[in-house]
Amino acid sequence: MSSLPEGWDMVVGLEVHTELKTATKLFCGCANNFGDEPNTNICPVCLGLPGSLPVLNEGAVEFAIRIGLALHCVVQPSSFHRKNYFYPDQPKDYQISQYDVPINGPGYLDLPDGSRVGIERAHLEEDTGKTTHVGGTGRIHGSDESLVDYNRSGVPLVEIVSGPDIRSAEQARGYAAELRSILIASGASDGRMEEGSMRVDANVSVRRGTEAPFGTRCEIKNLNSLRSVQRAVEYEALRQIAILDDGGTISQETRHWDEDAGKTQTMRSKEEAYDYRYFPEPDLVPVVPSEAFIRQIEAELPPMPAQRRRELIAHFGDAATDAQLDQANAAVELNLDPFIVGAIEKGITPALALARTANELAGLGDDAMSLPKDDYIALLKMEDAGELSATQSKKVLADLVAAGGGDPKAVAESKGFEQLDAGALDATLDEIIAANPDEWARYREGDDKLTGFFTGKVMAATQGQADGKAVNAALRQRRS
Amino acid sequence: MNAGEVSAVALANESLQQIDSQEGEIHAFVEIQREQVLRKAQAIDDGVAQGKNMGVLAGVPLALKDNLCQHGEVTSCASNILSGWRPPYDATVVSRIETAGVLIVGKTNMDEFAMGSSTENSAFGPTKNPHDTTKVPGGSSGGSAAAVAASMTPLSLGSDTGGSIRQPAAFCGVVGVKPTYGLVSRYGLVAFASSLDQVGPFAGSVADAAALLEVIAGHDPKDSTSLNAPAPALSSHLDDGVKGMRVGLCNELLEGCAPDMVAAIKRAAEVLSNAGAEIIEISIPELKLGLSAYYLIAPAEASSNLARYDGVRYGVRVDAEDVTAMNTATRTAGFGDEVKRRIMLGTYALSAGYYDAYYGQAQRVRTLIINAFTKAYSSVDLLLGATTPTTAFAIGDKVGDPMSMYQSDICTIPTNLAGHPALSVPFGVGDDKMPIGAQLLGPALSEQQLFQAASVLEHGANS
């Protein structure tokens, strides 16, 4: 829960920029590829050379509409404006964006916690190039030189603007996380925050009590992880409260989040704010998607996270524990739920499929998504059948993900993982019981806490080759 | 040409010789592509010798306005800020004329970034009117008009944002056409005011202008504002006449004009009438609002279009302490006074708090003018009026008085605001013996009728 001082309320709205996964840029045919050699995906149009003209990429329009539909937005006829400001990584010194008539009008997003955040708009615009400051201080002031890579110039973006409906830092994080899942699920974006393909700005203000008028807001830039979103919003609200408590006033400004320092800092004040001189982009014609085009995109829209969460939890019925519900949410957030559902449909024990996916697979980073589902299910099948212990299974999984897939049986064999036969397990247990007579006596008297003690001893003795379930069964058998 | 009766090399040499003898006095060009043109001419002659069809305009020399991008050739818009810049690509019109076999002999002088009406705003010095070198050739496409008027090239291309083809055509006594907005691709035309700019031909005759427009017109997927319409058939209809055509003699395109100008246009009306057209006197008061709307819309768009000349990527850079100071120093040194004036005007017109009163209001006036034209074209097929209020004025006459200079576009600007086509065809001379241009205007895509009427005026001009 929010740690705001008693009587204070925060009001937060998020602006999220997401790059679209189109093959080419928004207004030219250059490749939209992150990480290529600088200034290789460029042409007269995305360099803004004199005489060049933009031509709208229909694929970007389709992706923007997908996002709009996924956010329950009104998809409408729209047009482009020019947003004028000088910046070296912006080759035309104006950005082609949407202003008074965005492609997606009002909508909403429902969070897993049951709250609803309004969406004001989700519009199309072009990205800028990327500046790197070299030598000296390495920052814009005091560097020896600045290098600009225009590969990103003209990459399609959708900017999603929420209403001022968010009331806590946790909710801000939750909104950004759920939006990220939706963007990935829609197929329009890969949502990779660390690569900058999803970028979050937060507008934060505070007020005394939930009924007071909104306070003066500050816009926080440079939030490139979900954790930063939460930390920065929390920090900024507390900063503003401290100023107001001291009798000060908040000045409207743009602030920069310093992840290392854990602080927001002034970037530019309201007086330094640009006058963007928006006016209709004369080089482009209005975008008027037909109703049939919109309905077709809607029909092809994959299931969204909320629905997938419901479907996943349904596999557990009323028996799902709170921990399992959290695991299910986490799996859906990371778009790993198809692994769980796929495994359950192939007869894997639901609790095992959920635990392995939400705990282990989720921990293996972005590469986890590209593991072939069949390989994963084959691994779970071995574990479920007792052919691999949990420890062994986790090790095989890590190898499979690192290799981008493979036959789990072969990997297990190559690691020397063989099932411990019943005779060997019995012999090991005999030795351990003999070495720990007191513990064994207490266990026999019904102290179940010692199950873990003995299982651990067996695992250590067999270097993880024993199957935990088989050990449990053997222990119970000897006690009775 | 394709029959091999005349060689491309001979035509190129003829053009270059005429340039050699005239250019010193006229200064129509900012760059002459002597070696390139002879090389291309030879390639065309070789193709013809092998029996190949080298294009409908094979071997015809042409002068290109310096705001049209030509791969590898200097394209400076007659501005210091772009001096020496060589585009890595061809404008669509350049590709089309080269495919048609045209020989580009050089880039022509112009008012810097097409902002002006006399070609005196060139960073490389003014162009002179070949009919009287103390007079301006008009502008902004003054070099292209003068090149044709001085017989340096039979054809040239210009651009028309508020009259920049028609006004110099009138001053220099040649044919100049501003096509329907969207008929000719703007891809590779360095933008001045994107919603008004259009590329068009200059020629010594209506037929030559028609042939060139047929080559450059037609849909271009690289220009989103390009019309999805085929190029109009012009040459095959030049002799169709004007019988039954209703031509409005437009009061607002005559009042305020010099008496010799008014007399000439009335004679032009008679020529059309004698050829079977019905002449209807018509008044469209809204056209008077055009000038003030234009001088908000065009600078507003220009202020944005010219932002990219910031010294970061190409053209001139004046180094300074930081990026902002470098931008300012570059633009201060690189742009001429008229360009700076319009950038400031346009920036102001788009500023927060002023947008609605200036840019917004100008757009509403633009709609009024479009509606007024539409109403007029319900009762007439074409309009007739003067291209300019007077014949060519003297060099230096108006350069210190921007408002008076702006007035010289008063008859041409409304067409651009409406996106309609219009042309200027020579029709006699004024009291000063300088050429007079008769202007014909029509609704969108009425080029065929305009050329029919222009052809009639051309034949009747000396009768």
Automatic annotation (TrEMBL), chain A:
PROSITE patterns: GATB. It holds the Pfam family GatB_N. It catalyses: L-glutamyl-tRNA(Gln) + L-glutamine + ATP + H2O = L-glutaminyl-tRNA(Gln) + L-glutamate + ADP + phosphate + H(+). Keywords: ATP-binding, Ligase, Nucleotide-binding, Protein biosynthesis. The keyword Ligase applies. InterPro entries: Asn/Gln-tRNA_amidoTrfase_suB/E (IPR017959), Asn/Gln-tRNA_Trfase_suB/E_cat (IPR006075), Asn/Gln_amidotransferase (IPR018027), Asn/Gln_tRNA_amidoTrase-B-like (IPR003789), GatB (IPR004413), GatB_Yqey_C_2 (IPR023168), Gln-tRNA_amidoTrfase_suB_CS (IPR017958), Gln_synth/guanido_kin_cat_dom (IPR014746). Residues 338-479 form the Asn/Gln amidotransferase domain. GO terms for molecular function: ATP binding; glutaminyl-tRNA synthase (glutamine-hydrolyzing) activity. GO terms for biological process: glutaminyl-tRNAGln biosynthesis via transamidation; translation. PANTHER family: GLUTAMYL-TRNA GLN AMIDOTRANSFERASE SUBUNIT B MITOCHONDRIAL AND PROKARYOTIC PET112-RELATED (PTHR11659), GLUTAMYL-TRNA(GLN) AMIDOTRANSFERASE SUBUNIT B, MITOCHONDRIAL (PTHR11659:SF0). HAMAP family: GatB. Belongs to the GatB/GatE family. GatB subfamily. This is Unannotated protein. It comes from freshwater metagenome.
TrEMBL record, chain B:
GO terms for cellular component: glutamyl-tRNA(Gln) amidotransferase complex; mitochondrion. Gene3D superfamilies: Amidase signature (AS) domain (3.90.1300.10). It catalyses: L-glutamyl-tRNA(Gln) + L-glutamine + ATP + H2O = L-glutaminyl-tRNA(Gln) + L-glutamate + ADP + phosphate + H(+). It is an enzyme of class 6 (ligase). It holds the Pfam family Amidase. Keywords: ATP-binding, Ligase, Nucleotide-binding, Protein biosynthesis. Its EC number is 6.3.5.7. Residues 12-450 form the Amidase domain. One of its GO terms (biological process) is translation. Belongs to the amidase family. GatA subfamily. This is glutaminyl-tRNA synthase (glutamine-hydrolyzing). It comes from freshwater metagenome.
